[in-house]
Amino acid sequence: MKISLITAVFNSETTVGEAIASVAAQTYLNFDHIVVEGKSKDGSLAAIQQVQHDRMRLISESDRGVYDALNKGIQHAEGDVIGFIHSDDFLAHPGVLERIAEAFEDPAVEAVFSDLDYVAQSDTSRVIRHWSTGPFRPGRLRRGWMPAHPTLYVRRHVYERYGAFDIGFGIAADYDFILRYFSRTTGKSIYIPEVLYKMRVGGISNRNFAKVRQKMAEDYRAIRRNRVGGLSTLALKNLSKVGQFLVRQA
């Protein structure tokens, strides 16, 4: 089974090398890695080329934002299963794709996801938040549940059946896709209760108050659009983040 990983890059000169290296280090070798670079203003392209590996394909052209770049990656992916590794982040260890491939050995499985650690920008060994997703049950969507999107791997036919990312969302197209898929699917999903992904804090959705407000507005639009709840769902989604900090402080 082939796995495709997609990385969208824009102005990530200092971190994209680590993201790519974490993919190149995987012990599961039946994968391809599509890096979609959006004509960065910094040295991102040179940083990518320095660590390019033999299973990586580079697309360097202008795009309409991160979700447009991810959609391009999906179109170019050759794998039976598709996942993502963002340019500021990295896979937790070299056995991550082994764990994903094992979970997909059951042909009934459509989606696999895991836990995620948010780590400090300057010291990635320091965990700031721990996102423990828990398994999917339909009723949990109305209570604000969502898997950490970077940990989510799905079979190619999921995008063919349910569509990819709606670039009308600037920040929350991943949440919109998750609600669209999980509110409609009858396929089997597997939750792996392990940290398989490390994400640096300070991403676009929580960079400042304006972005937080935009994220909340887009989340609510996605909730209503996919008919999984209302303001209470949005409130519960945001309240669930509190426990992500408390887990690591305990």
UniProtKB/TrEMBL annotation:
It comes from the Bacteria. Pfam families: Glycos_transf_2. SUPFAM superfamilies: Nucleotide-diphospho-sugar transferases. Residues 4-139 form the Glycosyltransferase 2-like domain. PANTHER family: GLYCOSYLTRANSFERASE, GLYCOSYLTRANSFERASE 2-LIKE DOMAIN-CONTAINING PROTEIN. This is Glycosyltransferase. The lineage of its organism: Bacteria, Pseudomonadati, Pseudomonadota, Alphaproteobacteria, Hyphomicrobiales.
